[in-house]
């Protein structure tokens, strides 16, 4: 009977948790996707790269919101069960509140392991794949960036200015400043046409001049028609992987290396050690706060809804647990400032958990 009761509570909690995580994750993902649209409107990437980049950032979002959503789910389910008098079924069947808390903590440990897997492997892997798509993409949406009367700097080392866009799709009075190669050059043309298809991506220019700056001399020549290739240009988007996009194995390897070490796509430098330590703490140690949030939520079962202090207890538990969530974020930010702050960050979740657990046992000793 006990197994059946706990199975229902676990199933209801996980169902609410999974649904809430998915809905909240999609909301945050949508908001981020709007911000990422700059890759198309300003950096010249295509819609395919945009959608792939936003898709591969979804695991990162789930990893960030999981502890908060689990806290809300557990908090809601305990209150809901109490409101429907379903918690009394536990007590009637001889299930103590201590036993109830132990079962819920076991569930939280399972979710803690999922959080560690998300943070240590899936999230950095998916973010690295997203950055990889940016790195390997070209300016396949470049045509949409060309606007009259505006300087276009979406491409590294290339500035384009167009005075007017004609009705037939051509452009008038075009200026290009190309410093992508060893010999910078400036091009002026009275007219130009963008040719953008699968075979070629060029700017065909008519009636103009080219000014080549070759070290100590300047060469100027006129042309009737030239093709300026856009196929090999890359955008200004940052393509170097960030620390949070590097695999945990590479970060650990970097952290314990004595000298500067090029770890595949990541330059391991002493200046990044604090950031790397903070990232590893976030992936492997921060999930320890999930069992702490769980034991705090268990304080909701101390008083029934018929108790005069029931609502007051709900507010107290919510506020204190929410403050612990804030503490987990802020303490991580300052965890690598000094050895003392690092030690504090390592101790605080264990200390708070055991204090809360001992207090819970004391309060429920005769309940």
Task: Write up this protein.
The strands form two sheets. The chain has a six-stranded antiparallel sheet, with no helix packed on it. Strands 7-8 form a two-stranded antiparallel ribbon. The model has no long low-confidence stretch (mean pLDDT 82). Helix 6 packs across helix 8. It has eleven helices and eight strands. The protein is of the alpha+beta class. The chain folds into two domains: 2-137 and 247-363, no CATH class; 145-229, no CATH class.
Strand order of the largest sheet: 1-2-3-4-5-6
The global form is elongated
Count of separate structural domains: 2
Regions with little confidence, pLDDT below 50 for 5+ residues: none
Mean pLDDT: 82
Write a concise synopsis of the structure shown.
This protein is α+β, with helices and mostly antiparallel strands. It has helices at 2-35, 38-41, 47-55, 58-83, 87-92, 97-136, 248-255, 273-284, 289-297, 310-333, 339-363; strands at 150-155, 158-165, 171-178, 185-196, 201-214, 217-229, 261-263, 266-268.
């Amino acid at each position: 009977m006990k197994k059946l009761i706990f199975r229902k509570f676990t199933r209801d909690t996980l169902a609410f948790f999974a649904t809430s995580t998915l809905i909240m994750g999609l909301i945050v993902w949508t908001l981020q996707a709007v911000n990422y649209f700059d890759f198309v409107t300003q950096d010249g990437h295509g819609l395919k790269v945009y959608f792939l980049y936003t898709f591969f950032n979804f695991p990162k979002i789930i990893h960030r919101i999981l502890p908060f959503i689990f806290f809300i789910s557990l908090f809601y389910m305990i209150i809901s069960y109490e409101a429907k008098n379903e918690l009394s079924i536990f007590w009637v069947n001889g299930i103590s509140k201590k036993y109830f808390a132990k079962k819920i903590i076991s569930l939280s440990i399972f979710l803690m392991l999922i959080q560690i897997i998300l943070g240590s492997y899936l999230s950095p892997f998916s973010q690295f794949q997203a950055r990889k798509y940016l790195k390997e993409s070209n300016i396949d949406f470049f045509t949409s960036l060309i606007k009259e009367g505006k300087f276009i700097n979406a491409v590294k080392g290339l500035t384009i200015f167009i005075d007017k866009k004609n009705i037939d799709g051509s452009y008038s009075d075009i200026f290009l400043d190309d410093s992508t190669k060893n010999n910078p050059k400036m091009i002026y043309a009275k007219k130009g046409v963008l040719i953008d298809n699968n075979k070629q991506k060029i700017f065909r220019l008519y009636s103009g001049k080219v000014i080549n700056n070759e070290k100590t001399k300047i060469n100027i020549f006129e042309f009737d028609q030239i093709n300026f290739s856009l196929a090999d240009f890359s955008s200004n988007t940052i393509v170097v992987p960030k620390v949070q996009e590097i695999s945990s194995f590479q970060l650990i390897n970097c952290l314990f290396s004595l000298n500067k070490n090029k770890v595949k796509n990541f330059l391991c430098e002493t200046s990044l050690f604090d950031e790397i330590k903070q990232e590893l703490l976030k992936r492997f140690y921060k999930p320890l706060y999930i069992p702490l949030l769980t034991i705090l939520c268990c304080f909701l079962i101390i008083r029934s809804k018929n108790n005069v202090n029931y609502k007051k207890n709900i507010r107290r538990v919510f506020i204190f647990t929410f403050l612990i969530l804030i503490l987990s974020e802020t303490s991580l930010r300052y965890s690598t400032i000094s050895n003392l702050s690092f030690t504090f960050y390592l101790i605080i979740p264990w200390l708070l958990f055991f204090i809360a657990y001992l207090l819970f046992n004391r309060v429920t000793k005769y309940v």
